[in-house]
Design goal:
The complex is a heterotrimer. Chain A is built from eleven helices and two strands; from the N terminus they run ααααββααααααα. Chain A is an all-alpha fold. Chain A has one domain: ABC transporter involved in vitamin B12 uptake, BtuC (Orthogonal Bundle), CATH 1.10.3470. In chain A, a hairpin with a 2-residue loop joins strand 1 and strand 2. The termini of chain A are far apart. Chain B has two domains: about 220 residues, Response regulator (Rossmann fold, 3-Layer(aba) Sandwich); about 150 residues, Rossmann fold (3-Layer(aba) Sandwich). In chain B, about 40% of the residues lie in helices and about 20% in strands. Chain B is globular, with a radius of gyration of 21 Å. Chain C is mainly alpha-helical. Chain C is about 75% helix and about 0% strand. Chain C has 14 helices and two strands. Chain C has a two-stranded antiparallel sheet with strand order 1-2. Classes of the chains: A mainly alpha, B alpha/beta, C mainly alpha. Chains in contact: A-B, A-C, B-C.
Chain lengths: ~290, ~400, ~325
């Protein structure tokens, strides 16, 4: 197997996790026009949630995603009432600051509890070896979990009443309210789902790499890139954009030093933002 | 039995203590949070154990007085931004008489600018990079063997076992690891090794898949590099997860920490260049023996000491010795005593360069290689494998 | 006339106080505390030009400070140029770069602009971390010889301190000057309603690009001075995303859009952080406390301390701009 192919498969696998992380950010942004700066700290909480649950139960780490998603929903509702409800429709700076404040508190508490030392979730799934390259089972399991969660979310948004209400509010909140949809409740649910997705992606990352309470910040930045590539408020597009970003990383890394990749990624990000402010997959509506 | 002797030694010291106790303040910052906190806290424990041991024995005795040791220390958050503010504060507000360095070469370089201005002695530990000692400093004294030695030892060991090995360097792009790898690359070529791959990664890297794919493609059989705890442990796990066919892996700093054994099978066979190992059997002219230090440390912290801890404790010992020699805490006299120090403690030999162009550089201490191996019962232990004269086990080569 | 405005005299008095206080007892510890306060004020007041005056949220403001530090340090210690010349050239270089970047990303509005500034910050950091002449990730060290032209390291630090105080005073005076100028009114119009401002004849593209470039100049000069004083620079301390966000927190705390607010917020926040960090009991919780404080300010007093003062004493608007 050639190096570039192996590298692209690795990219594809990790890319789906980037995609899942970005879905949460994208959903919240699309529905309520809030850039959720607690995103990174919620990803980190997902990592530590997985660590705690796994240490306590020692069961299959990927089965633990379900209880963690529930925890994420509850946490999402708490954060919504604490910091988000009253900044919806206020200037963008307000929502940035109030979510950033929550982020500081969470990171601060996390640092006091867990310090900033690296933690590991010692769970491993046997990998697949092709020639001299081995793809770890954890990467494959994490990528599949990410895709399954993304599909479930898409089904929820398209097929259920609550999901349709979220999409209606995202499209046009005023019109949705006229139709009798309580927008506050919808916003709360959407926010909670966004947080749960962030936690789920953090939980998946924790099975791949060691993490500290500060690890979420890097994934938050990646999520920005993915969200913008996909176009705001397009959760499923975010998954695809995440996979593409992973593939891109995999495709260029054999040819250049890995340390150049952030420059390419964020350079691309700025260029796409200026050239296609609605995202590569965005519709050209006015 | 040894423990009894050690305690008796402490007791005899405390009985000898005179009543006119004064205090000396030693200042330093610790990275309680941030990327360096694992290594930095181990260093701090070394300082702390030294202080408690000295104070339990009635303080440092010099010139007919005894000085109890107290610390002034703050969290530098693994970030050099506040290092100067905090060192200035320790010197001026906390009236620190002597200073220890922060952990890591880059934070130490920043702190040194302040300590030099105030003509305060700073013993640096956890800071192996040489550049700082070549800027014309007068009061800086390095406890660690300089960075150049770290991987040259590993290459010597490799040369003895497999002169045809192909070598890859994968290392953190940070002051310390660059200072280690740059001379090591040249030395590898000088020894006739084929260096097939070399790449530096960003300090906060967690995903090494791309680099690992490149290592596999390069057909390297030996990997040297790493940086600090977080990245080194991650790299080792992923090398194992990707089943990279390597015969030898030597990483900086990280594998020395007792936490390394948490990596399980991924930990096996990894080599670490070390400043000190519990097995080392230096005949201490001064202070506790290595075994006594190890016991006291494990009793207090429930973990074996790492070389950062030993370096921390040894910094205290060397300072204590110099104060005793100087007969007081006068900076000029203590500095003169440090300049003429040539002392073997449990930590090994310590001697500082007095050549003006590299004043304070450590010239007495040398590097060990330690390797994680399974002992007869299957438990993971760290064995000294180099230099051959001091080995506690044979080098396991290839790893698997 | 700017000379008739009381705040100008307050600014000059503040700068004089900053010079006098540590000099009185030759108190270097105080100087070290005050220099960080001064830098916080410099960053906040220049950030205010973008956020407070023009309504554009710049998340990557720290990129100016870091780039200025790199250019300045390179000139001052590698090429051995005079420190002041090096700092000024750093300021000009970064301003020109900002103008070029600004013409691109200032086409974006609202959240999109905020995100683009993060992108620029991370991309520049990644570039510098790979840039060989600037030492890649390991950065650059100042050799002791570089302090010699200023009369040794000890004097050099005092000199950089005075220069930083000068830059702080200039930053505040600049904010004050722009505030009531025609140019400033144009910026306020953009902040309130950009499309309406364009209709009224404000050349928004040019105005925005100029203010973006202007807001880069003094932070870059300060960066050159501070990293020279610090003795080393590397990409992780030069382009600290967290510091960029803290700048916004300081601005909100004091009161965005006002000159006094940016200074007050910068000074208070920096002192609070320093205090929490060195307090044995609270140091573990400094982020929690700072975060909770921010949440309270945003929720209860979105105009910051100055906004609260305005409500309490409406006439204070005349003096405290």
């Amino acid at each position: 197997m050639s190096g570039i192919l192996a590298s692209m498969i690795d990219g594809l696998l990790i890319g789906s996790v980037y995609g899942l992380a970005a879905m949460g950010l994208s959903l919240i942004w699309g529905v309520m026009d809030v850039i959720n700066l607690t995103h990174g700290s919620m990803i980190a909480l997902g990592m530590f949630g997985m660590y705690l649950l796994f240490s306590a139960t020692a069961s299959n780490a990927y089965f633990l995603l379900a209880p963690l998603i529930v925890v994420g929903l509850v946490l999402g509702i708490i954060v919504y009432w604490l910091a988000v409800n009253w900044v919806v429709d206020r200037p963008i700076l307000m929502s940035l600051l109030s979510t950033f404040a929550v982020n500081m508190v969470v990171i601060g508490l996390g640092t006091a509890i867990w310090s900033t030392s690296p933690y590991n979730v010692n769970f491993s799934v046997p990998g697949i070896t092709v020639g001299e390259y081995t793809f770890t089972g954890n990467h494959i399991a994490a990528a599949s979990s990410a895709v399954v969660i993304a599909l479930l979310l898409e089904l929820f948004l398209r097929r259920t009443r609550a999901g349709k209400a979220i999409r209606a509010v995202a499209d046009n909140r005023a019109a949705a309210e006229l139709m009798g949809i309580s927008s506050t409740r919808v916003l709360m649910v959407a926010f909670a789902i966004g947080i749960a997705l962030a936690m789920a992606s953090g939980a998946l990352v924790s099975t791949l790499f060691p993490f500290t309470i500060l690890s979420g910040a890097g994934y938050q930045l990646k999520s920005f890139v993915v969200t913008v590539l996909a176009g705001l408020g397009k959760p499923f597009g975010a998954l695809i954009a995440g996979v593409l970003l992973g593939l891109l990383e995999g495709a260029v890394s054999p040819f250049i030093a890995v340390s150049w990749i952030p420059l390419i990624e964020f350079g691309l990000f700025v260029v796409v933002l200026i050239a296609f402010p609605r995202g590569i997959f965005g519709k050209a509506t006015a | 039995m040894k423990r009894v002797i050690f305690i008796a030694f402490l007791l005899s010291l405390s009985f000898a203590a005179t009543s006119s106790a004064q205090t000396i303040t030693v200042g330093f910052t610790v990275s309680r949070t941030g990327a360096l906190n694992v290594d930095s806290l181990e260093q701090y424990r070394g300082f702390e154990l030294w202080r408690d041991t000295v104070n339990a024995a009635g303080g440092i005795k010099a010139g007919g007085k005894s000085y109890m040791v107290q610390f002034a220390s703050y969290d530098d958050e693994s970030n050099s931004k506040r290092v100067q503010q905090l060192y200035t504060r320790m010197i001026l507000e906390d009236k620190a008489d002597f200073l220890f360095s922060p952990y890591s070469s880059s934070l130490t370089a920043t702190a040194a600018i302040v300590t030099e201005q105030y003509e305060k002695i700073m013993l640096t530990t956890g800071a192996a990079e040489e550049k700082t000692y070549k800027l014309g400093n007068q009061y800086l004294f390095q406890m660690f063997a300089p960075a150049t030695q770290y991987l040259t030892a590993a290459l010597d060991a490799l040369k003895a076992r497999d002169p045809k090995a192909t070598v890859a360097f994968v290392y953190e792009d940070a002051s310390f690891s660059v200072a280690v790898v740059t001379p090591a690359k040249a030395y590898a070529q000088q020894l006739g090794f084929n260096v097939v791959f070399a790449e530096a990664y960003a300090p906060n890297t967690t995903d090494f898949s791309a680099i690992i794919d490149k290592v596999i493609a390069s057909k390297a059989t030996v990997l040297l590099g790493g940086g600090h705890y977080a990245d080194g442990s991650t790299l080792a796990r992923q090398l194992y997860g990707h089943k990279v066919p390597l015969k030898m892996v030597a990483l900086l700093v990280a594998p020395d920490s007792p936490q390394w054994s948490e990596l399980g099978d991924a930990a096996v066979g990894v080599i670490v260049p070390s400043q000190w190992e519990p097995q080392s059997t230096f005949k201490a002219q001064y202070g506790p023996s290595g075994a006594d230090f190890g016991k006291a440390y494990s009793a207090k912290y429930n973990a074996p000491p790492s070389y950062e801890s030993a370096g921390g404790y040894a910094s205290g010992l060397i300072l204590q010795h110099a104060i005793e020699q100087a007969g007081g805490t006068d900076t000029a006299k203590v500095a003169a005593a440090l300049n003429s120090t040539d002392l073997t403690t449990f930590y090994g030999r310590s001697k500082f360069s007095t050549v003006a162009s590299e004043h304070g550089l450590q010239v007495g201490h040398t590097i060990f290689l330690a390797q994680w191996q399974n002992d007869k019962s299957g438990a993971l232990v760290k064995q000294v494998v180099w230099p051959l004269a001091g080995k506690s086990a044979d080098l396991k080569y290839p790893i698997r | 006339m700017i000379l008739r405005r009381p705040l100008l005299w307050l600014i000059l008095a503040l700068a004089a106080l900053f010079v006098w206080l540590p000099l009185r007892n030759h108190d270097v510890a105080l100087r070290e505390d005050l220099i960080l306060v001064a830098v916080a004020i410099i960053l906040t007041s220049n950030l205010n030009l973008m956020i407070g005056y023009t309504g554009y949220v710049n998340f990557g403001h720290i990129v100016f400070y870091g780039l200025g530090g790199y250019v300045g340090l390179y000139l001052a210690t590698v090429l051995n140029w005079n420190l002041i010349v090096a700092a000024l050239i750093a300021g000009v270089t970064v301003s020109v770069l900002a103008l070029l970047f600004g013409l691109g990303i200032l086409r974006l509005r609202g959240a999109y602009f905020a995100l683009a500034t993060i992108g620029v910050l991370v991309a520049v950091q990644a570039f510098v971390a790979n840039f060989e002449p600037w030492g890649r990730s390991t950065g650059m060290y100042v050799s002791f010889a570089s302090y010699a032209p200023l009369g040794g390291a000890r004097r050099a630090l005092w000199i950089t301190y005075y220069l930083i105080i000068g830059v702080m005073a200039l930053s505040l005076v600049l904010s004050l000057g722009i505030r009531r100028s025609k140019f400033g009114l144009g910026l306020f119009a953009i902040r309130e309603d950009e499309d309406a401002a364009i209709v009224l004849g404000v050349n928004a593209t040019v105005y925005k690009a100029i203010i973006y470039s202007v807001s880069a100049f003094l932070p870059a000069v300060a960066g050159a001075l501070m990293f020279f004083k610090n003795g080393m620079i590397d990409p992780s301390i030069a382009f600290e995303y967290m510091l960029s966000l803290e700048g916004i927190v300081m601005l909100m705390l004091g009161g965005q859009g006002t000159v006094a607010g940016s200074a007050l917020g910068g000074a208070l926040y920096e002192r609070l952080r320093s205090y929490l960090l060195t307090s044995p009991r609270l140091s573990e919780f400094h982020l929690v406390i700072a975060g909770a404080l921010l949440l309270l300010v945003v929720r209860l007093a979105p105009g910051g301390l100055i906004g609260w003062l305005y409500r309490l004493v409406p006439r204070s608007r005349e003096v405290v701009e």
